[in-house]
Design goal:
By secondary structure, this protein is α+β, with helices and mostly antiparallel strands. The chain has 8 helices and 6 strands. The chain has a domain of 135 residues. The strands form 2 sheets. A 3-stranded antiparallel beta sheet has the order 1-2-3. Strands 4-5-6 form a 3-stranded antiparallel beta sheet. A hairpin with a 3-residue loop joins β1 and β2. The N and C termini lie far apart (93 Å).
């Protein structure tokens, strides 16, 4: 029985659990800010309207950002990985503990990602993907670049299946082919649409149209993050804008500063006396 190849010098010793790069929490925070960028901007801009205290309107987004920083740091502190002889063990989660053992033989693809910010810090993101999995088996965000490359080489080396000799016949049901099989082909429009949806760009796209009723939604995307009370909104009591007579004087004093759909000689308009 042959022993597994030794770990590269750049990787931590096997058998012990290890953390990610110390700057890992920063990249997790940036990923979360990218997803919640539009809601935070909406809180900062629209929260200052009306009779609300401006200090509270600015404190709410800052509190949300502080909460995201805390979550990112806790994710970094609770993430551990261990390199074994035939598998990688990943442990994550603070309240809900999650432990996954990923055999090297099950890892179909290893992806090392680097964007300009990664190159600036000398780090990389490592993804371990299985053959039939929809999501990666594990995401290590982030490792030192030399550790990510060494771990990629180690996974490929230990998970590589024995190569058949030239005289061996192919296994039953296996048709050898040199051509790659295309699993999914997307048009440019599909890529653009998925990019807008995944980055919450749909709000900006709708705002660019003069008649939002002409682009009615046809699908609900990302329902796993939907708030529980959203489905009950249509069942709530409904009133027209002028249904509350006591609010009529306040509504009459509202001024819209939206630019009209025609040229104007002066903008913004002169204030009312």
């Amino acid at each position: 029985m042959s022993l597994p190849p030794p770990l590269p010098p750049s990787l931590p010793s096997g058998g012990d659990e290890h953390r990610l790069h110390p700057w890992s929490w920063l990249f997790v925070l940036l990923m979360q800010l990218r997803h919640y960028f539009l809601p935070l901007v909406a809180l900062l801009v629209f929260g200052q309207r009306g009779d609300r205290d401006p200090m509270w309107a600015q404190l709410i987004p800052l509190t949300a950002i502080a909460a995201l920083v805390l979550v990112s740091v806790l994710q970094y502190l609770s993430y551990r990985y261990r390199i074994g002889n035939d598998a990688i063990t990943v442990r994550s989660g603070l309240l809900a503990r999650n432990r996954r053992e990923i055999p090297f033989a099950r890892i179909h693809n290893v992806e090392v990602r680097q964007n300009p910010l990664h190159r600036l810090f000398g780090v990389a993101e490592l993804r371990l993907e299985s053959a039939g999995g929809v999501r990666p088996e594990a995401e290590m965000r982030v490792l030192k670049l030399d550790q990510a490359l060494a771990l990629e080489h180690l996974v490929r080396q230990r998970g590589q299946a024995p190569q058949p000799t030239p005289g061996d016949a192919p296994a039953a049901g296996v048709v050898p082919s040199d051509d790659e099989q295309v699993l999914l082909r997307l048009s440019s429009w599909d890529v653009l649409r998925m990019g807008l949806l995944s980055n919450r760009g749909w709000a900006l796209a709708i705002a660019a149209f003069d008649d939002p009723t002409g682009i009615a939604p046809t699908i609900q995307w990302g329902v796993e993050a939907k708030l529980p009370y959203v489905d009950g909104i249509p069942k709530l009591p409904a009133e027209e804008t002028m249904g509350d007579v006591s609010s009529a004087p306040y509504l009459a004093e509202l001024v819209s500063y939206q630019h009209p759909d025609h040229d104007t000689d002066q903008w913004p308009p002169e204030e009312k006396p």
